[in-house]
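During the reporting period the student researcher (J.K.) took over the structure-prediction task from the postdoctoral fellow and processed the backlog of single-chain submissions. One of the processed entries is reproduced below for the supervisory committee.
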Amino acid sequence: VCTMNLLEKRKQLHSKLKMASNNVYFNPPANIQLKYPCIIYHLSNTQSLFAENSRYQTQYNFRLTVLDSAADSELVVKLLEIFPTMDIVSQHISDRLYHTYLDYKTF
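J.K. obtained the following structure tokens:
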């Protein structure tokens, strides 16, 4: 049974993301000046398993956005090396910054 709660999982994820970049932001408010390239992430959803009418295990799923001026971001490559189960979802460009979206599921 997994006993780590959401806050613990998020802090653990944040620490691992810092291995790829110092510019890591969790749900940054609009007034924060971001430093690029950077990682922005948020909780996207949860999936729970139940047994005997109680929650047995919860998987927390996070959506990451890498903002970088390079289409082939080295930051994305680092993330995929650190998190082998992370998936690239999509990419687009806006205001001369590439936005690469990745999904990470905690187990």
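The committee noted the following: The helical segments are 6-17, 74-82.
J.K. will present the remaining backlog at the next meeting.
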